[in-house]
Amino acid sequence: MKRILVVGAGGQIGTELIPHLQKHYGEDNVIAADLNPANVERLKTFAIAESLDALDFQAYGEMIKKYRIDSLFNLVALLSATGEKNPQLAWKINMGALLNSLNLAKEFNCAIFTPSSIGAFGYNTPHVKTPQDTVMRPNTIYGVCKVTGELLGDYYHTRFGVDSRSVRFPGIISNGALPGGGTTDYAVEVFYEVLKNGKYTCQVPEDSYMDMLYMPDALNAITQLMEADPAKLKHRNSFNVTCMSFNPRELFTAIKKRIPSFEWNFEIDPVKADIAASWPDSLDDSCAREEWGWNPQWHMDAMIDDMLKAVKVKIDKGLY
Ligand code: AKB
Fold first, then answer.
1. Which residues make up the CATH 3.40.50.720 domain(s) of the chain?
2. Distance from Cα 79 to the centre of ligand 1, integer Å
3. Spelled out in words, what is the top-level CATH class assigned to the domain 4-170?
4. Exposed site from 125, 144, 208, 214, fewest CB < 10 Å?
5. Is the pTM of the predicted complex or chain greater than 0.90?
6. For ligand 1, what atom is nearest to the CA of residue 172?
7. How far apart are CA 37 and CA 34, in angstroms?
8. Ligand 1 pocket by C-beta < 6 Å: which residues?
């Protein structure tokens, strides 16, 4: 039986991962923890939720003991664009939460999932069909943390036997909680702006290709990988996963086909432009497919239709 603690649960992924895990493992077996009091209050409306600073090793360990946790999901991170505003803080938060999670996983014999990212790659990585095993020299502090996290995850597995697993998430498109501070955020923001204001100003260049996943596929990636037979895993930290790759122009043109009055323009953020240019255009996710049956379902057109429907409901209810 799984007893799960999700730290950093109030963000874009956690907000939808909690109900997904509850469905798989039962409501009483999933604990949502976050540092932000507003997030904790929101999480309490649908889950067992606690206030926790994942950088506080003692408090983190007490929570694992209190709930007899055997699986950790560490979602604490400053994302790529925010990280560049304060690299030292990004290192402190991203690595602090990860090291505490790994050390506590070792101490309490927990399995641990931490997402890596396409941010782990850099300019000198092959950009088309980026292989699973390739050059990884990122030029953001976020990416440096992700590469370090992947190495540490594998080290804790081989050295201490910790069951650590991870995927390299591309941009995740979702309609639960908004992302914040990422380079791929435009692909979420545009849906809210087009439905509310009919227009969108994009900070990422129109021809910057990046991989994307729709949230239902991202959630399945997490549970499928954590359930995978360990004997079949040649890799652990971390697997390339993707379902679609597009640039802003292609996404906006596809939205305009559905909403002809949609207008957009570009005010390029040089930091985001540089990050986007350094990341892959498309990933090769064949190792995930072979080793644990990764088989994403949501391609661009279906994702756009579903996002427009779901975000419209939110706006009509006055939730955004
Ligand atoms: C970001 O843009 O920073 C994230 C990511 C791809 O890891 N969404």
1. 4-170, 172-212+242-316
2. 6
3. alpha beta
4. 125
5. yes
6. 8
7. 8
8. 79-80, 117-119, 142, 169-171, 179, 182-184
pLDDT of residue 1: 67
Distance 55 CA to ligand 1 centre (A): 22
Amino acid at 316: D
**Minimal CA–CA distance to 222: which of 52, 56, 28, 30?**
30
Pull the structure tokens for residue 293: 């049956």
Is residue 236 over pLDDT 80? yes
Q: Which CATH code is given to the segment(s) 172-212+242-316?
A: 3.40.50.720
pLDDT value of position 320: 84
302-315 mean pLDDT: 97
Mean pLDDT to the nearest integer, 246-275: 98
Q: Are 320 and 311 in contact (CB under 8 A)?
A: yes
Q: Would you call 142 a catalytic residue per the annotation?
A: yes
Instruction: Give residue-wise pLDDT tens across range 238-255.
Output: 999 999 999 999 999 999
What is the position in ligand 1's atom list of the atom closest to the CA of 80? 3
Tokens, residue 311: 């975000």
Backbone φ and ψ of 71, nearest 5°:
-140, 130
